[in-house]
Fold:
Amino acid sequence: MTLIIGIIGKPSSGKSTFLNASCLTNAKVSELPFTTITPNKGIAYVKTKCMCQNLNLEDNPQNSLCIEGNRFIPINLLDVAGLVPDAHKGKGLGNKFLNDLSKADILLHILDITGSLDKSGNLVKEGENDPYEDIMFLEREINLWFKEIIEREDWNKFVKSFSREKREFIDELYKRLSGIKVNKREILLAIKDAGLEDINPYEWNEQNLCDFSKKLRNISKPIIVIANKIDKEISKENLNRIKERYAGPIVPCSALAEYYLRKYHDDKIINYLPGTNKFDILQPDKLSSREFDALNNIKSKILDVYNETGVQRALNYAIFETANQICVYPVSDLNSFSDNKGNVLPDVMLIEKGTLLRDFVREKIHTDLADHFMFGIDAITKKRLGENYELKHNDIFKVVTSK
Ligand SMILES: Nc1nc2c(ncn2[C@@H]2O[C@H](COP(=O)(O)OP(=O)(O)OP(=O)(O)O)[C@@H](O)[C@H]2O)c(=O)[nH]1
Ligand SMILES: [Mg+2]
Structure:
């Protein structure tokens, strides 16, 4: 299943711009709060060095793209409406908007690092709003949304029936949470992390329930802060200040700069590879002097300072660091590294680090084939891989079945 990244943040922080920059979509963007009401979807790509480089092969990617030796692997993005304080209680249609995030696996918090929007996304004087408070309020809203789903209206009644049977409690809790894509392993881990393993659920107090909701949210929908609008003068100072106070991951970003670069690239005016610090102007005559200056500014104020616009870094961070994914290349022919139609290195699949070959076959290839699975073969070493082999990043291998 392709992972889904949810884009969250207060109104006007730049969520739809981030989506458009990542996916070259045309979601409506404006400085007015609540421009987005119904979620916008798009396909974005994470970027990794392609194995065609190591093997000196010309590849024919099928499920992904290979550009200048870089593999771009598709992931889903979901841009939702802006959230305001007390969204979990329904403020600003908050409940509906939060529910739009049910299917997300990871959340990117698009933060207005300029501090020029109040909590509802209205323009205020630059620096008047403290972005650190935005990080705190948004995290709190998402945690409380989880808490409301866990508690519903009948928590006391619900927990009393499981006073003895803990397993039954986990099963029932799982049912409550399955709509927001939480699994049993995550529930058990959150109970442990919240220090509640030895306390009966009917004895959990309000604080315990808050702690559990918070841990569960953190495990099942982790948040990465994206410091957006880094192109503005005030942003660097704000970013440094926030880094001193906030220990979680923060990626500096200019979604707007990335959007322009990709658009000009798409129009063949410049040549730009996402996630790099340079671009070449191919058709200078197509640029007005204003556009020329804007591109020069992107180079000197963003690319030279942060080494990229931050959009690709944010996506890669979410998938490879936070969601702990690695890339593997299944093939059919071990000599030519191709599928049965002769496509060289056709597919790259994202899997969680630690995945065993057996689980890969069951989850990613075909449930039918899993019953006939015999072994795998590493395409480079030609060594046999057993069902308990833990797949490694960039493994190229064939799955042998008896069918
Ligand atoms: N300077 C600058 N402006 C940006 C950047 N990203 C977005 N903006 C501007 O911020 C404003 C709001 O952008 P949107 O993408 O519509 O914001 P949103 O978060 O989707 O807003 P809602 O849908 O209303 O919640 C627009 O005027 C954008 O041009 C950026 O990286 N730099
Ligand atoms: Mg929007």
